Amino acid sequence: MDSSMKLSIILFFACSLFIQGTLAAVICEKLPANLCSFAVESTGKRCVLENFNNEEENLGYTCKSSEVVVEKLAGHIESDQCVSACGVDRDFVGISSDAFLTPEFTGSLCSPACYQNCPNIVDLYFELAAGEGVFLPALCEKHKSNPHRAMLELMSSSGGAAVGSADSVVEAPGPAPSPY
Signal peptide span per the entry (predicted)? Predict the structure, then answer.
């Protein structure tokens, strides 16, 4: 067998493994706990990490699918690089908008490494912010110019107020489109 034939066989084998891997379905209930958070199963449902007490009364974690559907990211498991760049933790049970109150988190989320490269995490927090009446792109712009003022405006906003232009707090016009 000549070297070109060997190379063809190796290439065929490698491609077949790649295709098999890409066709595998992502199912939340089958994901290990350390990959659950920031994953979206193939049906488009977000995965959530839940805790429970096992038979020995030790705390354990399991991955479940939620009712939140994100079709454009179906089958996506966020990379460790994105988890790190965005300042999030896969071990958190439940995700809260309280994270926006820390300038460090908002700075990580709004950083180019996160905001431009990690659509799943950005989409999740975009929706979370919108639920609080905050338009994430405006918060990120405000954070770039004056992080402490952005946090003060965010904390002082009540109900539907959102961080808007550089010097004002404005009402959010309703659910904003996702940046992705």
Answer: 1-24
The total domain count for the chain is 2
List, as own/partner pairs, every contact residues 7-12 make where C-beta atoms lie below 8 angstroms and the sequence separation is at least 24, other chains included: none
d(CA 25, CA 156): 44
Closest CA to 176 of 139, 142, 151, 121: 139
> Mind listing the pLDDT tens digit for each residue in 80-116?
999 999 999 988 887 778 888 888 999 999 999 999 9
Other beta carbons less than 10 A from residue 79's beta carbon: 14
Q: What is the pLDDT of residues 13-33, one digit of tens each?
A: 444 343 334 447 999 999 999
pTM for the full predicted model: 0.68
In this structure, the answer to whether residues 120 and 166 fall within a common structural domain is yes
Across the chain, which distance is largest between two alpha carbons, in Å? 74
Q: Which domain holds residue 33?
A: 3-73
For 140-165, what is each residue's pLDDT tens digit?
988 787 655 555 555 555 343 343 33
Asked if the structure places residue 179 within a domain, the reply is no
